[in-house]
Amino acid sequence: MQISKESDAPKEITLINQSGMEIRLTTFGASWMSCILPLSTGKRDVVLGSPNIASQMEQSVYLGATVGRVANRIANGSFTLNDKVYSVTSNQGEHCLHGGKDNFSYRLWAVTQPNSQQAIFTLTSADGDQGFPGKLWVEVSYELTDDNQVIIDYQHRVDQLCPVNLTNHAYFNLAGEGSDKTVLEHDLQIYGTHFLPTNKEGIPTGEWRDVTETNFDFRQSKRISRDFLQDEDQRRAGGYDHTLILEPSVVDGKSVAASLLSPDGDVRMNMMTTMPAMQLYTGNYLIDVTGKTKVYTPFSGIAFETQFPPDAVNHPEWGEPWSGISYPNQTYTSQTRYQFIF
After folding, report:
1. Is the pTM of this model over 0.85?
2. Residue among 98, 186, 305, 315 flagged as catalytic
């Protein structure tokens, strides 16, 4: 068993399954650094990542990171709970992105490794951290199974009413992280019924728009490039950077909620989750990011950020299932699985 404390220097952990699939993790941001598939044509790393820990600590695009307390955006860095107004740190103009200036992706997490195919990261966030109320205890477990699934389990509790919205920010390129082929050449299917239009700063307008007859309809698999930048919603964001509300029947953690196919058709990634929504992000702002084997540029990778809808704390009209509000002294769990078929 390997144990580190939050105050230690960053550590790397490698998980390997019986077929030779390998994932690499780090205590810096409880981040997923590599995902190496043992293909018949050779090993292929399908997750974007930094070449070393020092570079990982300098990058600002959340490569593989666990983000929180609240993933995505909180408008104007402000929200109200129980008639009390809270101000949280703003790190995207006036808005709070992924938990604020010193969010969880920049923290050193403690880790235990109960076996060669699992690592459990833990973090404690103090009352008032980044302006959020209450003390928060978080546990994030990565497990690599022998059927080539990466299972990420989240568990948390708070001692005061607080929004909590945890996700992983891995970027995938099934052609290989160093490939010249972009995510636009992948085929994608998402069982999403609505998408959330945003303003030019990525803040939801409040509308849930039915995907029918829009470029956000991925219910039938299609090449990502087919409808890319073909509407004003995408042009404002430089591509897809929008939340899709998932079909309720697929958020049982077992049904496939989204599926990505490599350009050559030799690798498929199925995603299963218990979360009600997913941020689809085509890496529009990957600008000169130092990667493992190349410099990443826009559309080098795609993120499937399973989560509650962004800015939900400011939209109680959306309803409790999508609010992401955690109540004191209850244990909350969620899970997202990525299965690689090759």
Report:
1. yes
2. 305
